[in-house]
Design goal:
It is a single chain. By secondary structure, the chain is mostly helical. It folds into 2 domains: 9-97, no CATH class; 119-167, Winged helix-like DNA-binding domain superfamily/Winged helix DNA-binding domain (Arc Repressor Mutant, subunit A, Orthogonal Bundle), CATH 1.10.10.10. The protein has 7 helices and no strands. It has helices spanning 11-28, 34-51, 60-91, 100-117, 122-132, 138-145, 149-167. Helix 5 (122-132) crosses helix 7. The longest helix is centred in the middle third of the chain and has 32 residues, at 60-91. The mean pLDDT is 89.
């Protein structure tokens, strides 16, 4: 493929025309439906255009694939969160199941929390979730994770501080 100059006024249009079909086909192999592939392809182009790439793209498909891979990973993480939430809802008595609107908001919040906790160590994330979502006491968490109660306190404090920094 030819080099694309991202400073050209029609960069986005040329990039889209030359590579959209390829990207959508590539994504279709990694996503459950053609609609999902189309959505992620769209999001990929939006991200690339917002990034305002300064240098000329020597390998536009490689660049698009890198951005798309991250979006596919996010897609699968979000799907896993939604499925776990739906499992919890299925276990509730009918009168305790929230409205569809509340469910949508909760899925969005859970996805945001997952993104905020991303980058923390596995045990730090686990300690936080066990304390705040499962309601376990620190000694129970320490036993489950095979660490001291003091370590659990440090893990939860680390996770809370991390989330607070990201919220500011």
């Amino acid at each position: 493929m030819s080099r694309l100059d991202s400073s050209a006024p029609d960069f986005g249009a040329v990039l889209y025309v030359q590579h959209h079909d390829w990207l959508r086909t590539w994504l279709r192999r990694n996503l459950p439906s053609s609609h999902d592939a189309e959505d992620v392809a769209h999001d990929t182009f939006v991200r690339v255009l917002r990034a305002r790439v300064d240098a000329q793209l020597r390998e536009p498909r490689a660049y698009l694939a890198t951005v798309a891979r991250r979006l596919v990973a996010n897609f699968h993480r979000r799907r896993a969160i939604e499925l776990a939430y739906l499992e919890v809802l299925a276990s509730l008595p009918e009168e305790r199941v929230p409205s569809a609107e509340v469910q949508a908001v909760m899925c969005e919040r859970l996805t945001e929390l997952d993104a905020m906790l991303d980058g923390l160590g596995r045990k730090v994330k686990q300690a936080f979730l066990l304390a705040h979502f499962d309601g376990l006491a620190y000694p129970q968490i320490a036993e489950r994770l095979g660490v001291s109660v003091r370590t659990v306190q440090n893990h939860v404090a680390t996770a809370v501080a991390h989330c607070c920094l990201l919220m500011d």
